[in-house]
Amino acid sequence: MKQQISYLLSLLQGTSMQCRRAGGILLFSFLLFVGVFLSSLWFDMSMISSSFGRGRGGSRVRLTCPPAKEAAQHTCPSPPPPLARPTTTGPAAAPSPPPPPLCPTYFQWIHEDLRPWSASGITREMMEREKENANFRLVVLGGRAYVEKYGRRTFQTRDLFTQWGILQLLRRYPGRVPDLELMFDCSDFPAVAKAAHQENAPAPAPLFGYCSDNASLDIVFPDWSFWGWPEVNIEPWEPLMKEVKEGNRRVRWVDREPYAYWKGNPWVASWRQDLLKCNVSSGQDWNARLYVQDWISENKQKFMNSALASQCKHRYKIYIEGAAWSVSQKYILGCDSPTLRVNPRYYDFFSRGLLPLRHYWPVKAEEGHKCSSIKFAVDWGNAHQDKAQEIGKAGSGFTEEELKMDYVYDYMLHLLTEYAKLLRFKPTKPPAAVELCTELMACPAGDLEREFMVLSMADGPRHGGPCTLPPPFTPSEMKSMMSEVSNSTGQVELWESKTD
Ligand SMILES: *[C@@H]1O[C@H](CO)[C@@H](O)[C@H](O)[C@H]1NC(C)=O
Ligand SMILES: *[C@@H]1O[C@H](CO)[C@@H](O)[C@H](O)[C@H]1NC(C)=O
Ligand SMILES: *[C@@H]1O[C@H](CO)[C@@H](O)[C@H](O)[C@H]1NC(C)=O
Questions:
Q1: Whose C-alpha lies nearest to ligand 2, atom 2?
Q2: What does the pLDDT look like over 266-280, one tens digit per residue?
């Protein structure tokens, strides 16, 4: 590597180094059409992109890419040596620091998600059993990560940004991620049916993915959007959160439109089409203001109309699932306006930490009940404005505090650590696996992808983390949580029934 090109990524916009995609715009438009039939999540973005003015301030991170010719033979540089742990002996030794605080309660679900293997452990045969549903195998050995990709293509850059997130975890906690092998599924839906694994059936395959539901055993892991979603111009979670916060200051809650807002693609799920029936019309006002996301024209305008700040202008925001879970939930919660959450079927890694009437307002999912449920919620909130604002703030507070990137990484670390304890085989690197490293991932990427990667790079080794993993739920904790959920939901139903 005689000639290395070094540049600040903030200067990089517009100057593509070695890898501008030919015909990118045409291809992108084409993909937009194809995408309609392929995935729900693309269209779920009832929100977003505050990318204008991005690049301000510049990035501290410097990325060094080899000249294009050499890129092919480029291998990952050695990672920095692990942090020397401070010794506790010697005269200068500081008093041992207090144990880190407990992680948020949703971390307790890690134990539940891994429970199917708590007795049997995980054999190589179990792990590989769902190989046909996996997009890649992740191997961590000695603090370095390797990926073996399987034939199935993932939608857009989900796999890339998921792997980028794992790489950032390794940067953040060098030497702390244990050796492991796992299978990862980047699709929308869970794949491991619970029903197939009753009593005498063989233990299920552990398969990592983005969401699961009551009927499935998939192990949930943070989705790619925390590191960015370039195809719809959604920035990484951390910088985006800052902008949402600023946006929230622009319009005080009491000055917002006193209605419930939703914008998205209704064609991915029948329940979304059912929701559209609640839109205001000349004959009926259900207090809902609903809009169809027009991705084709919004793409032409670089998603300007979807900008998140412009979507925090209503006092209430509706969250409804797409074909499966939707990454939009965290952005919707961030608005300081109560989220009217249409009862979901799927969960992701954090959503089980959300409680009705505390972080959101529950809305009935049954066909024919949504409209009256939404109307009631808005009327109630407008009549109890302090309580409504409290719910709005608690939802945003959850995304700001319990869902900050520190905790996203801590969740990944704890989940992978607990998972690795269950392995009954020695992880090895398959010959076809390729090492993940900053240069090999970011240098060949497109401009926006690379920009998001740099924006979402984790700060180097973290001192003092991670938070302390809470023990599994005790039966009484589980019971009281379940009853809080059903009590609050029941309370709302009771109120609703009294207005009929
Ligand atoms: C809902 O009603 C508003 C106001 O009339 C209108 O602008 C909007 O296009 C409607 N949305 C849909 C999906 O029809
Ligand atoms: C999932 O299971 C819980 C507890 O068994 C139940 O209360 C809930 O209604 C189920 N959810 C769905 C969507 O089936
Ligand atoms: C919820 O709990 C409170 C106190 O525990 C109880 O008084 C109330 O009746 C419950 N409401 C419902 C709808 O179950």
A1: 214
A2: 988 999 999 999 999
User: What does DSSP say about strands 62-65 and 136-141: parallel, antiparallel, or unpaired?
Assistant: unpaired
- Around ligand 3, the residues with Cβ closer than 6 Å are 487, 490-491, 494
| Ligand 2 environment, Cβ below 6 A | 214, 345
Q: Does the beta carbon of 205 sit less than 6 angstroms from any atom of ligand 1? A: no
State which of 480, 481, 489, 491 you would mutate to test the pocket of ligand 3, scoring each by most atoms of that ligand within 8 A of its C-beta: 491
Segment 346-367, tens digit of pLDDT? 999 999 999 999 999 999 999 8
Ligand 1 centre from 174 Cα, in Å?
A: 51
Question: Strand 212-213 and strand 346-347: pairing?
Answer: antiparallel
At 355-414, the pLDDT tens digits run: 999 999 999 999 889 999 999 999 999 999 999 999 999 999 999 999 999 999 999 999
pLDDT at 43 over 70: no
Top-confidence residue, 82 or 16: 82
What stretches of 230-336 adopt beta strand conformation (E)? 257-264, 288-292, 314-319
For residue range 295-307, what is the model confidence (pLDDT) as tens digits? 666 665 555 545 6
| pTM flag (> 0.90) | no
Out of 278, 289, 318, mutate this one to test ligand 1's pocket (max ligand atoms within 8 Å of CB): namely 289
User: Cα separation of 399 and 393, whole Å?
Assistant: 10
Percent of the chain topping pLDDT 90? 61
Per-residue confidence band for 243, with pLDDT thresholds at 50, 70 and 90: confident
Alpha carbon nearest to ligand 1 atom 14, residue: 291
CA distance 135 to 392: 37
Query: Whose Cα sits closest to atom 12 in ligand 1?
Result: 291
Q: Which fold has domain 230-403?
A: Rossmann fold (3.40.50)
- Residue to mutate, 112, 194, 213, 214, ligand 2, most ligand atoms under 8 Å from C-beta: 214
DSSP string, 362-418: EE--STTTHHHHHHHHHHHHHHSHHHHHHHHHHHHHIIIIITSHHHHHHHHHHHHHH
Residue whose C-alpha is closest to residue 380's, from 355, 363, 397: 363
Q: Dump pLDDT digits (tens) for 102-135.
A: 999 999 999 999 999 999 999 999 999 988 899 9
Quick one: residue 284, left, alpha or beta (phi over 0 = left, psi -120 to 50 = alpha)? beta
Distance CA 449, CA 350 (A): 25
Give, in order, the Cα–Cα distances in Å from 80 to each of 172, 240, 361, 375: 11, 29, 47, 57
Domain edges within the chain: 1-9+36-71, 105-227+405-469, 230-403
Reduce the secondary structure of 106-126 to three states and give it as a string: HHHHHHHHHHHHCCCCECHHH
Q: Which ligand is nearest to the CA of 347?
A: 2
